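Design a sequence for this backbone.
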């Protein structure tokens, strides 16, 4: 079985070759991520494991490399080694019913100990599996686990509460690195993140147009990389280059007639060419829940509070109504005809709300498709069946 080190090396070779062959911003971002992964293996820089909803700026401000559990899973999936790592967890007695997103990276942890962190930061703002993942990782590495408690409602009091906890994390990171907290450095990182957010908003504007000159999943893949492991000036430059490329692409005009406007809910499937297949049918993906901006511009002069507020504004916290409100607003803003909910096997968080989302979208006149699958392991998806289901959905929408 491959070790995590081997996976990272294979990933680096793929990313480097791709970036040298086609130096687009998305390929350069992939290469940048691969370089950061190589840095994680050297043992020269401290690491903090965390999960996708925790803002990376605080970690980078101490010169620490963040390791996102979801990104480790994506990289393992990218080199098609997920089944090996899942097997590792099954041999260790973990249930096959638990989430493959968390279990794949846990398999990576169990396979070797290269990525030993100085701290693990989990969060209550998402799912139970994610919280358990950090407990196992903490036991394996014998490293402290900090569980950030995020209140279910965003209010000034909840921001106070999260800010107080972020200050405890700062104290721990300072102790682990022997460095004082550098507020100016954090301000600079937040400034870059605000610039990236502004670029994302401009791209969203393009996608709201009918017909949309830009569509597909590229933006999700690109900004996903920037959100989990590439930060500061490099990330800002990549985002600017990406935007210039988009403007040039949009100037070439539409590639095909837009018959149907689709919104994608929850995660994107790790299956090749799904969206290209939809495009051949005239169904263009114009909005994704995963990539939407749900937080305000961060107030740079109070950087810790700004991060606390961003955490509290997460669409993943609180009752389903929070998520629903966000989805309905997107459906209207992007004038979508239909919504596809990709329901990850064994994910109570995403699957539990389907009925409520479907009923509310129906009330708004928007068709809904529930598509079951695995967002972490390509091999667990039946591609032909997935295409057939999507084709009938699009047919239903066009008649
Ligand atoms: S897919 Fe669902 S269960 Fe798995 S990590 Fe994400 S929210 Fe948690």
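Sequence:
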């Amino acid at each position: 079985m491959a070790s995590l080190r081997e996976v990272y090396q294979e990933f680096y070779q793929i990313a480097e070759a791709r970036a040298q062959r086609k130096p687009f911003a998305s390929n350069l971002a992939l290469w940048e991520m691969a370089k950061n992964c190589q840095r994680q293996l050297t043992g020269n820089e401290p690491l903090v494991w965390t999960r996708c909803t925790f803002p990376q700026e605080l970690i980078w401000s101490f010169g620490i490399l963040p390791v996102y559990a979801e990104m480790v899973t994506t990289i393992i999936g990218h080199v098609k080694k997920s089944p090996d790592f899942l097997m590792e967890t099954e041999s260790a007695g973990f249930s096959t019913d638990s989430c493959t997103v968390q279990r794949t990276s846990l398999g990576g942890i169990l396979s070797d100990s290269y990525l030993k962190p100085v701290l693990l930061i989990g969060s209550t703002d998402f799912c139970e599996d994610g919280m358990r993942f950090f407990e196992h990782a903490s036991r394996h590495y014998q490293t402290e686990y900090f569980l950030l408690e995020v209140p279910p409602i965003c209010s000034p009091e909840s921001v106070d509460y999260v800010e107080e906890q972020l200050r405890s994390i700062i104290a721990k990171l300072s102790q682990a690195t022997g460095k004082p907290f550098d507020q100016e450095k954090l301000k600079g990182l937040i400034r870059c993140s605000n610039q990236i957010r502004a670029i994302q908003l401009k791209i969203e504007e393009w996608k709201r147009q009918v017909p949309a000159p830009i569509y597909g999943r590229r933006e999700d893949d690109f900004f996903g990389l920037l959100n989990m492991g590439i930060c500061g000036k490099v990330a800002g430059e990549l985002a600017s280059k990406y935007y210039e490329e988009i403007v040039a692409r949009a100037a070439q005009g539409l590639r095909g007639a837009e018959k149907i406007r689709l919104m994608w809910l929850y995660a994107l499937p790790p299956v090749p060419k799904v969206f290209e297949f939809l495009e051949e049918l005239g169904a263009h993906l114009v909005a994704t829940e995963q990539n939407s901006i749900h937080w305000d511009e961060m107030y740079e002069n109070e950087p810790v509070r700004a991060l606390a507020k961003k955490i509290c504004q997460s669409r993943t916290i609180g009752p389903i109504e929070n998520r629903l409100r966000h989805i309905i607003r997107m459906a209207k803003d992007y004038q979508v005809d239909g919504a596809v909910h990709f329901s990850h096997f064994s994910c109570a968080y995403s699957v539990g709300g389907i009925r409520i989302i479907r009923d509310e979208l129906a009330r708004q006149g928007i068709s809904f498709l529930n598509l079951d699958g695995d967002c972490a392991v390509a091999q667990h998806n039946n591609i032909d069946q997935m295409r057939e289901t999507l084709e009938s959905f699009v047919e239903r929408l066009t008649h």
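The two ends are 50 Å apart (CA to CA).
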